[in-house]
Design brief:
The chain has 253 residues and is an alpha+beta fold. It has helices spanning 11-23, 41-58, 69-75, 93-98, 103-108, 141-147; strands at residues 29-33, 61-65, 79-83, 86-91, 115-124, 127-132, 135-138, 154-159, 164-166, 178-188, 193-199, 202-208, 219-224, 230-232. The protein has a five-stranded antiparallel beta sheet with strand order 7-6-5-8-14. The protein has a five-stranded antiparallel beta sheet with strand order 9-13-10-11-12, with no helix packed on it. It has a two-stranded parallel ribbon with strand order 1-2. The longest helix has 18 residues, at 41-58. It starts with 10 loop residues before the first helix and ends in a 21-residue tail after the last strand. Residues 249-253 have low confidence and may be disordered. GO terms for molecular function: ATP binding; ATP hydrolysis activity. Keywords: Sugar transport, Transport. Residues 3-36 form the ABC transporter domain. This is ATPase component of ABC-type sugar transporter.
């Protein structure tokens, strides 16, 4: 690259030159402000890996500003999530993904994003259920105490796409974890299939087994892993179940 002028360099090469110019100064802190935003998708993946290797080799602090949550999740040791200049949550990638503090963080982190369903919390037969029309999902006993103050109220139920399964590929699923959805779009991705479905007016996405044979227009039985459920306070949008998923396993399937 030494015999080329800047305009002759590709986007990735210009990024490497800029990083190299910063490295030779041996700073204690690097500041990257959306450094990969102008690169194509393939080059962004490559540069993410290079920047992570750089961080490991230099052992220097890097402050990395980005709107791309994939970059944040794959590269950061600690993530600070902000909205309108206000910090919403600080934590490692695992905690902000599995234990989001509020609805904004839950919807921002994750691809596809967390599903949100407007529902009511109902106590019936000594158990607590998430209910919307004929959708009726049993709340695990270890989460009930956190939710007692919301029983009888309209809330927002949240669950990630990978915690929803095709009943056909689940082992002996229980009826209290099954929901019928109207399939609208199917996206086969090879290693997984994304099912876009509608449940009584709420659109959801499920990451299911790639062998799933669902088609647009089907009425599909979906199994929800309720050990991974989230519930958001209707007034504050705080995640009432934050901190309850650290040891969660798909025990309902």
């Amino acid at each position: 690259m030494l015999d080329r002028k800047p305009k002759q360099l590709s986007g990735g090469q210009r990024q490497r030159v800029a990083v190299g110019r910063a490295i030779v100064r041996k700073p204690k802190v690097f500041l990257f402000d959306e450094p990969l935003s102008n690169l194509d998708a393939k080059l962004r993946v490559q540069m993410r890996a290079e920047l992570k290797r750089l961080h490991q080799n230099l052992q220097a602090t890097i402050i990395y500003v980005t709107h791309d949550q994939v970059e944040a999740m794959t590269m950061a040791d600690k993530i600070v999530i902000m909205k309108d200049g206000i910090i919403q949550q600080i934590g490692d990638p695992y905690s902000v993904y599995f234990e989001p503090k509020n609805k904004f963080v839950a919807g921002f982190i994750g691809t596809p994003a967390m599903n949100f369903i407007s529902a009511k919390l109902v106590s019936e037969g000594g158990k607590v259920w998430v209910v919307k029309e004929d959708m009726k999902l049993l709340v695990p006993e270890d989460k009930v105490e956190r939710l007692e103050h919301l029983v009888g109220k309209e809330t927002t139920f949240g669950i990630r796409p990978e915690d929803i399964y095709d009943k056909m590929y689940s082992v002996a699923p229980k009826e209290e974890f099954i929901v019928k959805g109207d399939v609208e779009v199917v996206e086969p991705l090879g290693s997984e299939t994304l099912i876009h479905a509608n449940i009584h007016g709420d659109d959801i996405v499920a990451k299911v087994d790639p062998k799933s044979r669902a088609s647009s227009g089907d009425k599909m039985d979906l199994v929800f892993d309720m050990s991974m459920m989230h519930l958001f306070d209707p007034e504050t949008e705080e995640n009432v179940l934050a901190g309850t998923h650290k040891d969660a396993a798909p025990e309902n399937l």
